[in-house]
């Protein structure tokens, strides 16, 4: 079962990065409640990438059902996670409104997220620093209401 889930996770993660941009974090809900079951949350490094993903994904289908994607105000997924579930002690079951995250294998986590830490030498790091610096500058120049939108999307 874990192997099938890892394959699904890797396929979605890889497609998100290839089509839309760098994924900082991706989470899949394992909740039983109708409003959270199977939800996939993707946090992109750049807000523009999240907006592009939402526009495109709302025209797609998965498992014979339309995908409903939207931008989310959540900036830190850890704040939305159920601490009791993480310790194996959540008693609310299907009524819990906090995210019960389905974990991926350690190997897949290293493969998907670990490749970023290696980098491609100092040139890629300096390009990344310049990009972050430019993003911060744009952020300061952006009107307040635009800043309130988050770069993560719910798919």
TrEMBL record:
A zinc finger (C3H1-type) spans 76-103. Keywords: Metal-binding, Repeat, RNA-binding, Zinc, Zinc-finger. GO terms for cellular component: U2AF complex. Residues 76-103 form the C3H1-type domain. Residues 112-155 are annotated as: Disordered. GO terms for molecular function: RNA binding; zinc ion binding. Residues 136-155 have a biased composition (Basic and acidic residues). Residues 1-74 form the RRM domain. It comes from the Eukaryota. One of its GO terms (biological process) is mRNA splicing, via spliceosome. It holds the Pfam family zf-CCCH. This is U2 small nuclear RNA auxiliary factor 1.
